[in-house]
Structure formats: C-alpha cells, structure tokens
Amino acid sequence: MANTKRSRRWWTVLLTLAMSLGFATLNAPSASAAYVIGTDFLRNWETGLCLNNADAGRINTQPCQSGNDRQKWSVIYQYHAGYDFVQIVNVATNQCLVWSYNGSLYAGDCNAGTWDERLWRGVGSGWNMVELTDGGINDRYQCLDSDRNGWAYLLECNGGGFQKWRLGY
Prior knowledge:
Residues 1-33 form the signal peptide. The chain has 169 residues and is α+β, with helices and mostly antiparallel strands. 15% of the residues lie in helices and 40% in strands. The strands form 4 sheets. The protein has a 6-stranded antiparallel beta sheet with strand order 9-8-5-4-1-12, with no helix packed on it. Strands 2-3 form a two-stranded antiparallel sheet.
C-alpha cells in the first residue's frame, strides 16, 4: 500500500512538471518574434548628439533633449543572423529609419517600399555601443554615420566613433 501511494505521488509530481514545462513552452515567444529591445535616444559616441527625425523625413543629429520625442527611437528586434536585425521606429512620427540603395537616409513609412531598406544590422557586443549598418550591397556595408555639424548619413563602415551609437543617454 505504501508503495502505491509513493508511486502515485511520483507520477503526480512528474505529470505536474511535464504540464508546467509544456505550458511554459507554449507561452514562450518564438525565436523569430519581433519585440522591442528598447525605446530611448540613439546617441552618437563621438559627438554626443542624438539622432533626430526632423521635418519632412530628414534625419540629423542635435543636442539631446529629454522631452523631444523626435529624438526617441524604438529598436525592434526582427531576427538574428550573425547579428541582430532590427527596425528603428521614431516615437513622435511612427516612421522607420530607412536607408536606400543609393546611399540616402530618411524617415519613412514602415510598411512601404523594400522591406530590407527598413532593416538595420546591429554590430557590436551590446546596445550601449553598436554600429548600425545597412544590408550590405555587394558585401560592402555602410554604417549610420554622423559629424559634429549635425549631419547624419551612410558611409562605408570604418570602425570610427562617428559610426558608434548608444541606445540611451
């Protein structure tokens, strides 16, 4: 009789554990599910200026202002293929940061045009210092770059501080 009770308890524990693991697996996000990595400033390491969605979709950098939602960006994870591939969406305008095959940079509709022009590759060990690159045309990647005059543009990646960004102030 004692063996039967012990056996029932063992099976009850085992069944409870199996069901718990099964429900945890069902509720876990898939590896390819989009999620927000963070929403904050994108601040340039070299200049200390923040990426800004100016009027008419123009992108520039300006001194960081805590109440300026045009300087706040949501970095949205899409998938991982050696690096994180993300969409970068402006909080104030809900427009995506877009790179173009002709080298231009602008804020535009997140659902229009070519999907890969709205994807950025985050190269780095974390989002406190990352290079944001385009998709790589002919394996020649261009990075989101800036200068002390407030310009933001794409330039062939060179590893310099003007091409390093931080999510957060």
